Amino acid sequence: MQIMSVKMTRYKQADFVDEDTSSIGTIQLNETSGSGIQVRYKTRGNSLWKSLSKLEKILLSTCFTLTFCLLLVIFVPRTKDIDSTFLNVQNREKPDQYFTSEAEKKAKFYYESCMDEDGIVEKLGAEPMKKFIKNFGGWNITDSDYDISSWTLEEHLKIQNRYNMNGFFTWGVAEDDKNSSRNIISIDQGGLNLPTRDHYLNKTGHEKVLKAYLDYMTKVAVLLGANENEAKRQMQEIIDFETEIAQITAPLDERRNDEKLYNAMTLRELQIKAGFIDWVDHFSDAFSIVNRTITNDEPVVVYAPEFFQNLSTLIIMYKKTSEKRTILANYLVWQAVRSLTSCLSKPFREAYKGLRKALVGSEGSEEPWRYCVSDTHNVLGFAIGAMFVRGVFHGESKPAAELMINQIREAFIKNLKTLDWMDKNTSKLAEEKANAITDMIGFPDYILNKTKLDERYFDLKINKTEYFDNNIRVNIYNLKKNLEKLNEPVNKTTWGMTPPTVNAYYAPTKNQIVFPAGILQLPFYDLNYPRSLNFGGMGVVMGHELTHSLDDQGREYDKFGNLKRWWENKSIDDFNNKTKCFIEQYEKYQINGKKLNGKRTLGENIADNGGLKAAYHAFLNSKSDNEADILPLPGLNMTHKQLFFIAFAQVWCTTLTSEAATLQVEKDNHTPPKYRVIGTLSNFDEFSREFNCKLGTNMNPQKKCEVW
User: Fold this and answer.
1) Could you give the CA distance from residue 26 to residue 32 in angstroms, rounded to a whole number?
2) Is 50 exceeded by the pLDDT of residue 22?
3) Most buried of 238, 395, 452, 650 (most Cβ within 10 A)?
């Protein structure tokens, strides 16, 4: 199964699972499928962090310097020679007494199981996966004695659910958009293993990726005992089936109207629309682990009713013959297998590199300790966060950040009052919403309370010699934690990112902005920095998240976090007309010959532009007598107004392979870094004035786009 994630928009291009794990901003590979908990985030995109296999997540997240900080703080004693510390990290782990809670010890044990210094994973080879596959009744691709006659789709999907594995669609317990105080079962489209539907439908443009995907699938099957030629044939059938799912999957840029996507119904009504499985039976089995009864009257929210109608037709057709039913069974087992291949021996991990090379231009080879630190953070992020906060985070950053947020909010609200296109009533409600935004900074207090932290991970059992089984237990633990929410009211203070995460987010159903401790560091923020650099870095992040509350999707939610129509029609029309300017502007930009998608990136572009403006005006309104805020920086002939913009641009200094840049254009809701800077600054008169950009040039065009 898949569970959908907490609805949120985040500053950097990253997708995140749920409250238990973290994402460190980068491109991710899959659009609509995967294993494990997935909760919806605001953009309704299906490209969610948990849709990645474990190997994909780790390979893509370890490139951030936060990883180094985490490792030094958690596992390595301080030394004067940082380079030698990295070189000898595997032999310098902290003693058990350093870890003050059982949760932190579990993190250490998980890390050790991942490092596999005793070679247990290598000795076991394919055996853990072969044993796991038996839970599904075997796999036709690797088992010559497989008998499809005893297989049923309904029973197979129940097993997928119990192990928190991917199926044809995503579902989970999440906040009800129209009643954000309660949790509800949410169901959405899913089922793809490549980054976008276009990777299947544009076979010419993505020929290299499709070939690499088939090669990867075949290699894994052969490692599990399959005949190569037969495996390749059956894996191609799986790709063909995924292509049929891609054909009925709505593209992300058509899924930005939350009001239209929201379709509330009962399971009885869903059964009529999509009868390919017994929905009450399906969910009753899943929720049995939390003793929750499910009936035909259970309310659900379906975000893609047309997809489910078409999926039902497709699957019913496939269920008619044994050959097609075999393809369904093979597809579902593959979904489970691919999510766990990185928990096996080196040949399985090596098998993925060809596909990764085709997708992002790099095989992603890195030292095991880097992989395992990121993996541990993904699994036990708040236990890691406790150690991170104790060792690195400076508490005085919190009140300073709180002051900055309030200053930026004031500037944002002041600007609202100057808008001539918004009617007075809508403007008043928008101001109320901005004032009602709550914020959380740094980390949740409970992580420094040993008892409470241990309670969080009490049900998660970790053994330092069982890496594969640890990951199975993590899947089941995450599943249970999510399903328990259906019996509970929404907790508005739940954190959707772990403390070490270098990112931030706005949650529309909570009307809340969150800034983890990880982002309150260089290059975004430092207490000793001049205000110009802090406002240009961290201040723009804060303004960005504030502006998300009134972007093309955030504006659909009221100050209480409920999806409802609270704008006057005239203001909606004027807003949409203004946003067309952004769509047209950003679609003129190209990366590797590919035009950016102005519709899909609209919300992030609105937030970038509005956030820069609010942060700059807050910077101008702030006062300081500190020398650092008055004197110029040594060696730089720049004013502090100019340094504000330099700090903003510096945050987006990025190196990407050509393939990774292309992939970002094809699937990310964020504009590529280069044009997040150029597009935003070229719309801002104050930038042009400070750098004397001539009117009519690229950085000071005659026509500028502005909403907030």
Assistant:
1) 17
2) no
3) 238
Dihedral sign computed on CA atoms, order 602, 607, 608, 613: positive
Contacts of residue 637, defined as CB under 8 A and 6 or more positions apart, other chains included, come to none
105 close to 305: Cβ distance less than 8 angstroms: no
| Beta bridge mates, 700 | 697
What distance in Å separates the CA atoms of residue 70 and residue 490, rounded to the nearest whole number? 31
Its sign, for the CA torsion 381, 385, 386, 388, is positive
- pLDDT band, residue 1 (cuts 50/70/90): low
Q: Where are the alpha helices (DSSP H) in 264-345?
A: 267-273, 279-287, 305-318, 322-338
Return the H-helix or E-strand segment holding 462: none
- 323 class by beta-carbon count within 10 Å (0-12 exposed, 13-18 middle, 19+ buried): exposed
CA distance 618 to 410: 8
Structure tokens at 122: 């290598």
**Tokens 């590919």 belong to residue:** 594
Q: How confident is the model at residue 90 (pLDDT cuts 50, 70, 90)?
A: very low
Taking only Cα atoms into account, the Rg of the chain, rounded to an integer number of angstroms, comes to 25
Q: How confident is the model over 381-413, as pLDDT tens digits?
A: 999 999 999 888 877 888 989 999 999 999 999
Cross-strand bridge partners of residue 439: 513
Residue pLDDT, tens place only, 488-533: 999 999 999 999 999 999 999 999 999 999 999 888 999 889 999 9
- Sequence-separated (6 or more) residues with CB below 8 Å from residue 313: none
Q: Positive or negative CA dihedral for 284, 286, 291, 297?
A: negative
DSSP sequence for 391-442: HT--TTHHHHHHHHHHHHHHHHHHHHTT-SSS-HHHHHHHHHHHHH-EEEEE
How far is it, in rounded angstroms, from Cα 1 to Cα 163?
8
E strand or H helix at 263: strand 263-266
Nearest Cα neighbor of 496 from 444, 550, 455, 563 is: 444
Q: Tell me what the mean pLDDT of segment 147-173 comes to.
A: 94
How many CB atoms sit inside 10 A of residue 52's CB? 29
**406 CB-near residues (< 8 Å, 6+ apart):** none
Cα–Cα nearest to 388, from 71, 155, 693 = 71
Average pLDDT score, the chain = 87
Name the H helices within 17-152. Answer: 54-61, 66-74, 82-87, 102-115, 120-124, 127-133
Q: Output the six-digit token pair for 594.
A: 């590919």
Instruction: Report, as an integer, the average pLDDT of 368-373.
Output: 92
Catalytic sites, residue numbers:
545, 608
Three-class SS state of 185: strand
Judge whether 311 and 248 are in contact, CB under 8 Å: yes
Q: Give me the domains of the chain, ranges plus CATH numbers.
A: 1-76+98-259+311-393+458-499 (1.10.1380.10), 394-442+500-690 (3.40.390.10)
CA–CA separation, 532 vs 539, rounded Å? 9
